């Protein structure tokens, strides 16, 4: 439970389109820091075991995309999806999902996920080290709400999905607003 803690300061290696490069693959590296993504914003971050995996691609990511307007109405400036996958994989996944609202963050080396304490082995699936499934509301780099799936463990033979769903997070945002 990381409520009240500052998220780790890391550099993410992204690939961005740059038409000035020309040719069949007009992309270049662009480093983005934690401050670039999270500074001065109230965001939802959700983290999942892998791009293109079934639950993530069929439910979690598309549902966040569909519900983006409702999150905005609850005072959320951005929705970020992070995974221990490199920028090439994350860009291809975003393209295949026709994403317009949710932004993908490639944590290829797993540094952010490790420093969040959420890195787990998924060698049982041939994945290596990946993220446990969790989500958080993060306000200017400080964790405001935390949604971690139960059973954090290495080589878990199930993939719990519920607390970190957009529906559950929205419900919490709405009820905490009413309570405030
Ligand atoms: C899924 O999202 O369905 C999934 C995630 C990790 C491993 C296998 C499946």
Automatic annotation (TrEMBL):
Catalysed reactions listed for this entry: a hydroperoxide + 2 glutathione = an alcohol + glutathione disulfide + H2O
UniProt keyword list: Antioxidant, Oxidoreductase, Peroxidase, Redox-active center
InterPro entries named in the record: PRX5-like, Redoxin, Thioredoxin-like_sf, Thioredoxin_domain
The Thioredoxin domain, residue ranges: 1-152
Membrane spanning residue stretches: none
E.C. number(s) listed in UniProt: 1.11.1.27
Domain of life: Bacteria
Family annotation (Gene3D superfamilies): Glutaredoxin
Entry similarity comment: Belongs to the peroxiredoxin family. Prx5 subfamily.
Function of the protein: Thiol-specific peroxidase that catalyzes the reduction of hydrogen peroxide and organic hydroperoxides to water and alcohols, respectively. Plays a role in cell protection against oxidative stress by detoxifying peroxides.
Protein name: Glutathione-dependent peroxiredoxin
Provenance organism: Neorhizobium phenanthreniclasticum
């Amino acid at each position: 439970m990381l409520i009240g803690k500052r998220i780790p300061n890391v550099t993410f290696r992204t690939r961005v389109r740059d038409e000035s490069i020309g040719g069949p693959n007009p992309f270049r590296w662009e480093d983005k820091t934690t401050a670039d993504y999270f500074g001065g914003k109230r965001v939802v971050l959700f983290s999942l075991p892998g791009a293109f995996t079934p639950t993530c691609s069929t439910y979690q990511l598309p549902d966040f995309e569909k519900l983006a307007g409702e999150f905005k109405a609850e005072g959320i400036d951005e929705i970020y999806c992070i995974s221990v996958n490199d920028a090439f994989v994350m860009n291809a996944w975003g393209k295949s999902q026709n994403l317009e609202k949710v932004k993908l963050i490639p944590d290829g080396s797993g540094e952010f996920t490790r420093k969040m304490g959420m890195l787990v082995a998924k060698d049982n699936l041939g994945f290596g080290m990946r993220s446990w499934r969790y989500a958080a509301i993060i306000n200017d780099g400080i964790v405001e709400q935390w949604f971690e799936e139960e059973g954090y463990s290495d080589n878990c033979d199930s993939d719990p999905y519920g607390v970190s769903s957009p529906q559950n997070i929205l419900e919490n945002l709405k009820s905490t607003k009413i309570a405030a």
